[in-house]
Write a structure and sequence with these properties.
Length: about 600
């Protein structure tokens, strides 16, 4: 049973489908090219063979061959180009798309310079373990073919080195045949758990060269074997008996898929074991937060040490850190494939956790196997039920809690996907009852991910009946506000709410902490952090790009009605931005954690 009102979901769906189909936009005149004639036609054909629906890009001469092939050979469909105003947005959009669908789309970025702009978003996707196929270009690699100056500054001997430390694989194929193999391998690796971005770099000359001879046909599916990483039955049996014997089992529900089947299996497992479940706001919803067994969410801060005897970690992001509070007394079962990605450059592998039983497997595959081993029912008792938000008296200052409360009241029983949350969000403000209710954070802690990820998620959710809402800090929003243009241009409905405290507030708390430790005035913490004088017109930034802009809202009583109006605009197919002037401040527990004098 769905937690939503079916009639409302149907209305939302029909509104979305009434909106202009993206595929009807930017149609090229027929070019009459129906056989591959150039190197880049082969690469374009591969994109289609890989069933990549969209390629988010910012253009550049280094891949003008591929650009032409997508427009004039493929007719700009499957994949369709999504023009972005910054490479960071292009990759962030592909990242957001993957967070919803679990599959990669492509992003294309120009030579070294476009790749430099894209790096932050690639790192975010890497830390988030999300698949993105990033395509780039260089050259001509043959120096004799280079145009003076520009081709020289935009050619690097080893361009992949820019991103090699935070991609799963990269390549620079040297022939059309190698291009096909490279793209197949890249897509397969990116989309095989543990998932991560990949980078394929095309030589400009190779793209533009005429094909000497046609390549033999290729059956792409045979090179993309689905990989299901299960745990050996004896380890499943061992895990099942440890969990069965446990008196106080706790499940750390970490990086799992968005599938409803997997979600239901996790609930059934928790119910069978009577295990409490911890979740993490940094990653997508993994357990219903209104379930009686739900034990709370963490974000950035390690969870308190739970009174547990056995911990089952389903690919928890920082298990070592989480267990610091009391691991000595627990038995720990770790289900993860993440170690396959760990390298010597990035420390995103986190602390090394103590582990008593290791299942090097996909948590989505392990949970049903555990249910079977326990002889437990695979269907949960939990039934998601919508409950209207109760009227609540909050304080006079407009805070993020007010924002959450008023937004929930305006949303009512619509199915919503929270595509991004600000740092100062408390899990208790918004219940999750479906795996797509929330898709997690930026992954790499790179501020500026929120708008692009939200656009990509909204793209994937288009026509699903779900209302995408990204709640961004003002700093996050302004770093990547131009990602919205792509949503407006391609008619991707989306609501962005800016939790605007007119500050890079997180860092005010850091300055406060340093001042406390040094015995210096904490009153100065705002200097070099506050974004006012002038206040930025965020609704204006939205309107300037063709989105609907609302605000700034400064009064509690304005919120619910403005959100209702903005939601109406989104349901009519628009992009809407609501600027809410919130009081600077984090939740008490977050502030305490950030400003305490010593560890
Ligand atoms: C790319 C990048 N630059 C700087 C930082 C450091 N940083 C962490 S949080 C933060 C403030 C973000 O401001 P905002 O989005 O407005 O959220 P707020 O802290 O005000 O709630 C900054 C600058 C970062 N994490 N990433
Ligand atoms: Mg801020």
């Amino acid at each position: 049973m769905s937690p939503t009102n079916p009639a409302r979901a149907a209305t939302a769906r029909s509104n979305a489908t009434e909106a202009t189909a993206i595929g009807s936009l930017e149609r090229p005149i027929p070019a009459g090219a129906n056989a591959p004639g150039f190197g880049s036609d082969v690469a374009a054909e591969m994109l289609r063979a890989l069933d990549i629906p969209y390629i988010a890009l910012n253009p550049g001469a280094s891949y003008r061959g591929l650009h032409d092939s997508i427009v004039n050979y493929l007719g700009n469909e499957k994949p369709q180009m999504l023009l972005c105003l910054h490479e960071e947005s292009a990759v962030a959009i592909a990242h957001g798309y993957a967070k919803v669908t679990g599959r990669s789309m492509a992003a294309a970025v120009h030579s070294n310079v476009g790749l430099f702009h894209a790096t932050m978003a690639i790192f975010n996707a890497w830390c988030d373990r999300m698949p993105v196929v990033v395509l780039g270009a260089t050259g001509p690699v043959d120096a004799a073919k280079r145009r003076p100056w520009i081709d020289w500054i935009h050619t690097a001997r080893d361009q992949g080195a820019i991103v090699r430390n935070y991609t799963k694989w990269d390549d620079q194929p040297a022939s059309p045949a190698a291009t096909r193999e490279s793209m197949l391998r890249a897509y397969w690796l990116a989309n095989t758990a543990p998932m991560a971005p990949v980078y394929v770099n095309f030589d400009a000359e190779l793209q533009e060269a005429r094909l000497a001879e046609p390549l033999p046909p290729i059956d792409a599916a045979r090179f993309l074997p689905p990989v299901k990483t299960a745990a050996p039955p004896e380890l499943i049996a061992q895990a099942a008996s440890m969990l069965k014997a446990a008196k106080r089992p706790v499940i750390y529900a970490g990086r799992v898929s968005r599938s409803l089947e997997g979600w239901n299996a996790r609930i059934a497992l928790a119910e069978a074991l009577q295990a409490r479940v911890v979740t993490d706001l940094k990653i997508g919803a993994s357990f219903p937060t209104d379930h009686p067994l739900y034990a709370g969410a963490t974000r950035g801060v390690a969870p308190d040490s739970f009174d547990a005897d056995v911990v089952l970690s389903l690919d928890w992001v920082d298990l070592g850190g989480a267990l610091k509070g009391g691991a000595a007394s627990f038995k720990i079962i770790n289900v993860t494939l993440d170690h396959q990605l760990h390298n010597g450059w990035s420390m995103d592998h986190q602390a090394l956790p103590p582990v008593d039983l290791m299942l090097a497997a996909d948590p989505d595959v392990v949970v049903p196997a555990l249910l079977a081993a326990l002889g437990a029912k695979a269907t949960p008792r939990y039934v998601p039920t919508f409950r209207p938000v109760e009227a609540k008296k909050l304080g006079d200052d407009l805070t993020n809690e007010h924002l959450a409360y008023a937004l929930r009241r305006a949303v009512k029983d619509r199915p919503v996907t929270l595509t991004h949350l600000p740092l100062s969000w408390d899990a208790e403000w918004w219940p999750f009852r479906h795996p797509l209710d929330q898709i997690g954070g930026d992954g790499g802690g790179g501020v500026g991910g929120g708008p692009g990820i939200s656009v990509g998620a909204a793209l994937a959710l288009r026509g699903s009946g779900r209302l995408p809402i990204g709640i961004c800090g003002d700093g996050d929003f302004m770093m990547a506000a131009t990602a919205l243009w792509t949503a407006v241009h391609y008619r991707i409905p989306l609501l962005i709410v800016v939790a605007n405290n007119r500050s890079f507030f997180n860092d005010e708390l850091h300055q406060e902490r340093v001042a406390r430790i040094r015995g210096r005035p904490v009153e100065n913490r705002w200097i070099g952090q506050r974004i006012s004088d002038p206040d930025v017109d965020l609704a204006g930034l939205a309107r300037a790009q063709g989105a609907k802009g609302f605000g700034p809202l400064t009064e509690m009583r304005e919120l619910e009605s403005t959100f209702t109006e903005a939601i109406g605009a989104v349901e009519a197919g628009h992009v809407a931005v609501v600027d809410v002037r919130v009081k600077p401040g984090y939740t008490a527990s977050m502030t305490a954690a950030m400003t305490r004098k010593t560890e």
